[in-house]
């Protein structure tokens, strides 16, 4: 990409100033072409000038894209207009997607520790490891745990632990059973509109799926392999660097030994270094220690102190601190202002990467989070869906160069934007 041509930009703007403000007249085809050009200039990246080769690639891409649009018009099935769950298969077959998949992405900056890798791997590998037990919860979910055979198997909400190896030997259709496990570990369903009629229901399912996945991933031998496999998947998609929001919950060994947060960060560090050794053009991983936004003030104070400690202990791997969980149902950021200002008061560095504005409410505490995130000196904003309703936040984030981590699929899944029902 070359530097923008500011002279050209100024000429286009002055032309439209003349057209609309001073010399209103009948529009000509040239006026129309200039207006379209002005609009293109205002798109993301519109002020960058492409090189000859980039223009050639763009031509090819646009041709393939036009073909897909025509196909969508013909069949009535156009992936960008569909619910992601129905569109996923179409997207995976799409030549445009295949080109995008090959393109260098830079960084994956909004990832969560228990949703890094395709769940197929968890079901086909982690649940087939020896000593993996399953518990069917009263609400139709599943939990997993690895136990020594003669170990006491007591867990909340689980009356009976069954050794998966034995269970699979007893059932007739193992494939169907494994598919049901995958459904427990994701939100994918054939009728999302019916299954997820409110954001509360979606968030409940989210937590259940995360809890089921974390019960597998928190087993030390799975923890490291899972992360290495996840890095492989990102690398395959040409992502060069990732940052993970991590609760850093205890990781356990078969003998019941529990590892602390430092162990988990060191494990991420070790696996990431190993992966970088194996793939020298991969740039690495950082961790954003995150806690649930339902904590009380005293718990948040402890968490902030822990985060400061981890940040000074692992400056290469710890990126900073954040809060996770359903924003509408949790405490607003301002509720924790005293705790979040502790590092500044102590003169200790702790960058923030707040989830904020992940809501479609307007005029409540929850959509003020986006303003408070900026006031509390956030480095980036997670989701930021409500930013278009908060003009001051939009301007300030631009001025402070605070990037927004946008996830259109998440916005769709949570019904902030709804696709058609095709
Ligand atoms: Zn998130």
Q: Can you give a write-up of this model?
A:
The chain is of the alpha/beta class and 422 residues long. Among the domains are: 1-49; 57-103, no CATH class. The chain is 49% helix and 13% strand. It is built from 18 helices and twelve strands. It has helices at 6-22, 29-42, 52-75, 84-93, 95-102, 119-124, 164-170, 174-185, 192-195, 199-217, 220-236, 261-278, 297-313, 337-340, 342-346, 365-375, 391-399, 408-413; strands spanning 106-112, 132-136, 142-146, 162-163, 239-246, 251-252, 258-259, 284-292, 318-324, 355-356, 380-383, 403-405. The strands form four sheets. Strands 1-5-8-9 form a four-stranded parallel β-sheet, with helices on one face. Strands 3-2-4 form a three-stranded antiparallel β-sheet. A three-stranded parallel β-sheet has the order 10-11-12. Helix 1 (6-22) crosses helix 2 (29-42). Mean pLDDT is 90; it is low at 2-7. Bound molecules: zinc ion.
The helicity comes to 40-55%
Strand content: 5-15%
Largest sheet: 4 strands, parallel
What gyration radius follows from the Cα positions, in whole Å?
25 Å
Distance between the termini: 38 Å
Question: Counting H and I runs of at least 4 residues, what is the number of helices?
Answer: 18
General form: globular
SSE map:
Elements lengths: L5 H17 L6 H14 L9 H24 L8 H10 L1 H8 L3 E7 L6 H6 L7 E5 L5 E5 L15 E2 H7 L3 H12 L6 H4 L3 H19 L2 H17 L2 E8 L4 E2 L5 E2 L1 H18 L5 E9 L4 H17 L4 E7 L12 H4 L1 H5 L8 E2 L8 H11 L4 E4 L7 H9 L3 E3 L2 H6 L9
Parallel strand pairs: 1-5, 5-8, 8-9, 10-11, 11-12
Antiparallel strand pairs: 2-3, 2-4, 6-7
Bound molecules: zinc ion (ZN).
Zinc ion binds next to β1.
